[in-house]
Design brief:
The protein contains one helix and twelve strands. It is mainly beta and 156 residues long.
Length: 156
Amino acid sequence: MELKEIKELIKLVSDSGVSEVDITKGDFKIAIKKHEEKTVVMQAPQAYAPAPVQVAAPAATERLEAPAAKTETVAGNFITIKSPMIGTYYKSPSPDKAAFVQVGDEIKVGQVLCIVEAMKLFNEIESEVSGRIVKILVENASPIEYDQPLFLVEPK
C-alpha cells in the first residue's frame, strides 16, 4: 500500500463518523482507529521480510522535493499556512539549533518553515508564499494533523 493511500484512509477516518477501519491486502494489514479526536495508525508485522529493493541514488545535482505547505487566505488579509501531513512539528533542525522562522521574520517562496516528522522521516516544510510571519500556531514537538494551521502570514 502506498503512503498516499494510507494518508487518504487516515483522512477518511478523520472526516467521517467511522471510528475504526481494518484493511488486509495480501500480506499487508493495516488498522486505523480513531480515539478521542486523535487518529492512530497501526501496521501489523509481516510474517516474512520482503526482499530488499534496489533504488538508484539521486544524482548530486538532483534536488529532492520537500512537501510544500498548504495555504489559505483568512480574515484580516492573512494567509494561513497549513500542514501537508500528519506528524510531529519541530521548529528547528535540532534542539540546539535556532528556529527556522520566528514571529516577525520575512519569508519567501521555497524557504523552509519547519520540520514535520512522520513515520520516522523528517520532512522539511517549505513556504508557498512570501510575506511576514505574524503568528506561529503550534508548539514545538507537538503532534499535528493533516491540514492543521501552522502559521499566519501577512503577504507581501
